[in-house]
Amino acid sequence: MAPVDSRRLPRAIVGHVTAAPRPRPEAEAEAAGPGRSGRRSLAVALLCGAAGAAVALLASRQGWSEGTASVAGGDLPLTAKGSDVTGVPAALAVVGLAALVAVFAVRRAGRSLVAGLLALSGAGTMAAALVGAGDGTALDEKAAQVSGDTSATADALTHTAWPYVAALGGFLILLAGLLALRYGKLWPSMSGRYERDGSPRTRRVRPVADPDRPEDIWKALDRGEDPTGA
Description:
Helix content: 55-70%
Mean pLDDT: 79
Strand content: 5-15%
CATH architecture of the domain at 36-187: Up-down Bundle
Strand order of the largest sheet: 2-1-3
Oligomer: single chain
Largest sheet: 3 strands, antiparallel
CATH class of the domain at 36-187: Mainly Alpha
Radius of gyration: 35 Å
Low-confidence stretches: 16-20, 27-32, 192-197
Order of helices and strands: HHEEHHHHEHH
């Protein structure tokens, strides 16, 4: 059979045969959309969670309230740190940081539960910091301690902005938890190559030493094996 000259065929047929189908731009965008959203949300959640925990812990170590106590006819300056007012923000910040790491160690329903714990840790940090922003109990206790009078209270009581900084840290942790709840199913998980899949493992069989080769016999004796294979 004689070969067909493509120059004699209609252009429509030649174009149909030689042209390769190209994927639609819409299909490529749809395929890349979930992956791009997962990477972006993962980066934002990691940044917000780590930064929020660090900010909350730092703010808890700063002075939240200041005042004075009357001691021996003079005024003694007093300062109450965030840890003196309430230890909840620092504790929940640590819980949130642990939950942020644990999100990548679990899958499916477990990931949703850990993400919910992360969000609750952020909300609790915010609430505890805002409640402690106007609390003067810790400073009154310090005034009673230094003056020796259990009924003494702090004078010239003022509050700093550090409680609101701790609340900002809690908001960042909360945002990380909400991102984990929304996009956590698109995030990667820890490698499972060390996990057992339930399949039986093949046992490695060592070759029996050849009696005609003295080097094989010596190697078997060094391994504590019977060179005869019995």
